Amino acid sequence: MxxxxxxxxGRVEKAIEFNQRALERDxxxxxxxxxxxxxxxxxxxxxxxxxxxxxxxxFAPEGTVARASLALAMAAQGRAEEALVQARNExxxxxxxxxxxxxxASARHTEEADxxxxxxxxxxxxxxxxxxxxxxxVRGERDTAFEWLERxxxxxxxxxxxxxxxPHLRSLHxxxxxxxxxxxxxxxx
Length: 189
Hints:
Blueprint: H1 2-8, H2 12-25, H3 30-42, H4 46-59, H5 66-76, H6 80-88, H7 93-106, H8 110-124, H9 129-138, H10 142-154, H11 176-185
Helix pairs in contact: 1-2, 2-3, 3-4, 3-5, 4-5, 5-6, 5-7, 6-7, 7-8, 7-9, 9-10
């Protein structure tokens, strides 16, 4: 839990330390490997994140989050086709669509990106406004990304707890609305 809390505060290096210590005590924890992978990905250590996601999947092959996250880590290493295969195998539809929307947008597959995003919004807008904001940020659509962040705030979306460490929202960091949004949420950058 300490690793999750540290990541939510944007302290990903500290979160990685917490996860590594937890794995010393319980080296078979799929959840800890998953959280380690998320923290490594947030720290731009995609290769290490990929290894952690593989470990998580080894212990819990049917688990959710890990395949979508593995796909994003692979894409960050320039392995787009492998990433798409992993994303398509994510069992949770919301996460599968989220990853596919980001992967296709990054690869400039406009039709596929639009389709994944459209389905994500149609099926999961109430559950995933923060993730939808992330997709719009990756697409470079800042105004729409901020609209979805505002919606997430209004709906008290739990995904907002992770925005400080989200690599997908970095394109918004130089926008004055970002700092204002963080302040309103009680975060400081």
